């Protein structure tokens, strides 16, 4: 079952059929341990009505106003290697090697909802940055009790020039207006995702493909439950929380994003998140 946040309601999608719940509130819906059975009962009871088409221009990022977006880092070997390359002159490379092996993962605050773009909306690169990449990441949708009730697609936009200059600049490399993309929907499930689930990234410039890459979840060093347990350690999330699980795709050092680039991130079973760069 998939759920989409609309400007004024919720759309459910089950077995290729769409259902509209006009006026339904996303924040109540998404922070509920039983959301999957509630969504099914909405369909069987007729609380939501069948519709024919999904109007993508009405979609909102699947994050409620009372939720936070957190992120985890260096959870794939490719991310460790990329960070070590960019920080070798600053002497920061050792920190990435250590955190990849350590029991405690890297977790950081990424964004409040107003800094998040939905699918079809624009993400930004900072004006004071010279080297920028999208980071395609499986994103966990977690309730206030710490239960993973679904998954969405995340784009953890990152300034490699700022992060590489000094690891202490991480919040500036990661958090700014339109620094993240999320969407298009939440895939609601009680089951863990298959390890062969593929995350793929393409970047188009002037309608030409300039980058493509893919990775499977089998390459992720940490489990989703482990990441939730660290984010929720000593922090409560009354409205629930979304957690990006880190990138396994990092373009080589010669690549940087430009205004106008179109970033598409697909995850098997969830869909495709599309954001262009402002
Ligand atoms: O340590 C810097 C950020 C890491 C990150 O965002 C990632 O690995 O996805
Ligand atoms: Mg990341």
Automatic annotation (TrEMBL):
Give every Fumarylacetoacetase-like C-terminal domain span: 101-277
The GO terms this record gives for MF are:
catalytic activity; metal ion binding
Coiled-coil zones: none
UniProt keywords (A-Z) are: Metal-binding
* One Gene Ontology term from the biological process aspect of the record: small molecule metabolic process
Q: What InterPro entries does UniProt report for this protein, alphabetically? A: FAH, Fumarylacetoacetase-like_C, Fumarylacetoacetase_C_sf
Question: Which Gene3D superfamilies does this one have?
Answer: Fumarylacetoacetase-like, C-terminal domain
Family, according to the entry, reads as follows: Belongs to the FAH family.
Q: How is this protein named in the record?
A: 2-dehydro-3-deoxy-D-arabinonate dehydratase
The keyword Lipid biosynthesis is annotated on this UniProt entry:
no
Q: Which SUPFAM superfamilies match?
A: FAH
Organism the protein comes from: Sediminibacterium goheungense
The family database entries (Pfam families) matched by this protein are listed as: FAA_hydrolase
The positions making up the signal sequence are none
């Amino acid at each position: 079952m998939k759920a989409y946040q609309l400007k004024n309601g919720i759309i459910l999608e089950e077995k290729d059929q769409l259902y509209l719940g006009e006026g339904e509130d996303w924040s109540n819906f998404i922070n509920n341990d039983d959301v999957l059975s509630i969504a099914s009962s909405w369909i069987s009871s007729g609380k939501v009505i069948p519709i024919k088409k999904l109007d993508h221009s009405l979609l909102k990022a699947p994050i409620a106003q009372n939720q936070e977006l957190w992120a985890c880092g260096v959870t794939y070997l490719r991310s460790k290697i990329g960070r070590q390359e960019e920080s070798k002159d600053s002497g920061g490379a050792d920190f990435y090697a250590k955190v990849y092996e350590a029991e405690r993962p890297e977790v950081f605050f990424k964004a409040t909802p107003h800094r998040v773009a939905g699918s079809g909306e624009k993400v930004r690169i900072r004006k004071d940055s010279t080297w920028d990449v999208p980071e395609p990441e499986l994103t966990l949708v977690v309730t206030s009790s710490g239960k993973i009730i679904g998954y969405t697609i995340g784009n953890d936009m990152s300034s490699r020039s700022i992060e590489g200059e000094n690891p202490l600049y991480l919040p500036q490399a990661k958090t700014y207006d339109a620094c993240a993309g999320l969407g298009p929907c939440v895939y609601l499930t009680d089951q863990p995702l298959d390890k062969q689930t593929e995350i793929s990234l393409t970047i188009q410039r002037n309608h030409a493909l300039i980058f493509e890459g893919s990775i499977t979840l089998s390459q992720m060093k940490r489990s989703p439950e482990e990441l939730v347990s660290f984010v929720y350690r000593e922090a409560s999330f009354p409205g629930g929380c979304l957690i990006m699980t880190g990138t396994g795709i990092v373009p080589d050092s010669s690549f940087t994003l430009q205004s106008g680039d179109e970033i598409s991130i697909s995850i098997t079973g969830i869909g495709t998140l599309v954001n262009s760069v402002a």
